[in-house]
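Q: Could you fold this chain for me?
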Amino acid sequence: MSYKTILVHLDAGNSRRRRLDLAFTLAEKYGAHLIGLFGMADVVVPPAPEASAALIEVTMNQRRAAAEQAAAEFRDKMKKEQYSAKSDWHATVNDGFHELRRWALYTDLVIAGQPDGEPPGLAHDLVMSIGRPVLYVPYAGRFEDCGNRALVAWNASREAARAVKDAVPFLQRSASTEVVTFGDESQLDPYIGAYLARQDARVSVAVQPLAGISAGAALLSRAADNGADLIVMGAYSHSRLRELVLGGVTRELFKSMTVPTLMAR
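A: Sure. Below is the predicted structure, expressed as structure tokens.
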């Protein structure tokens, strides 16, 4: 099992170049076709008609400039790495979510930036709606590779099972994979370990008591203690509407992400 097509979402943010570098590393590792896509959230039109046209024109000009710069960075990277024949570039200055969701249909893995601010934005909406795994890259720090030491958050839910299945290409290559359930010993699940062992993952299974802290904080702490460079988890919400109320662990990871995190639902 492998990722044959990877999509990297680029925007106007300062961390997009680091995200591109990681996307290329993973595309090369898996021999994948790499799609670069520039897109931003749809333009919000102010209620005052006299201000709308001027604001939209300024916004569109800024987006065109950002899209051109992102395209240049992507093409320069592909040319430098002699990867142009296995890559494509797409961009939109209109509704970036629509375009991102469209191209995600034809990929095995989407690489996006950690949502910055509230609401989490189009990258969050993607994992909740597209049925593809999204690898979120923190906006702080540099990550030239990931997946060498993996930490899987497991609670035997549909979302967690989907995330584990989608992460198998990472876990097969990982030097170690630890599957952790946060709770008490009665929740230890040896079957997930057996499943991943049959996928040729080097896996161990553990339970960690929460000891008065949130599951999100416990997950980030364990990742730091274990030197994990990849977290795998299901993405949870309390609503199926676009304006989602995030599940607690998902919300905390989006806010305080420290390593690349693969989410699926």
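A (continued): Strands lie at 5-10, 33-38, 87-91, 109-113, 134-137, 149-153, 176-182, 203-208, 230-234, 261-264.
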